[in-house]
Amino acid sequence: MYLAKLNTKALGLKKPITVAATVKNTRLASQIMIKALEFEDQTPDADDMVTTLKLEQELLDEQVKFLQIVMKLSEEQMNKILDHIDFRDLANYTSYVCQR
């Protein structure tokens, strides 16, 4: 089983976290990447800002859930991360974890 040791300093955590490339984690990574690509493909009208914000919030929630499950983070650790990074950093780190 392949294990990825993730550097978590960018997230505001002190210790690295090891993530196993299990079937469950691989499926979760695929699901979150599909959702991110689907979001990028959305080109709503300027008048449809509410829909855009809802889709953005849904993607954000899914990314947070994905990282918490795959990295086995506690609520406290997840809250620390969310207080430390912005939306772009979260998307980049989610992509990084999926690629590992």
The residue fraction in helices comes out at 55-70%
Oligomer: single chain
Q: Helical segment tally? A: 4
Q: What general form does the structure show?
A: globular
Question: Would you mind describing this structure in some detail?
Answer:
By secondary structure, this protein is mostly helical. Helix content is 64%, strand content 8%. It has four helices and two strands. It has helices spanning 23-41, 49-70, 75-84, 87-99; strands spanning 3-6, 17-20. Helix 1 packs antiparallel against helix 2 (49-70), helix 1 crosses helix 4 and helix 2 packs across helix 4 (87-99). The longest helix is centred in the middle third of the chain and has 22 residues, at 49-70.
What tags apply to this protein structure?
100 residues, 4 helices, globular
Q: What is the topology?
A:
Blueprint: E1 3-6, E2 17-20, H1 23-41, H2 49-70, H3 75-84, H4 87-99
Antiparallel strand pairs: 1-2
Helix pairs in contact: 1-2, 1-4, 2-4
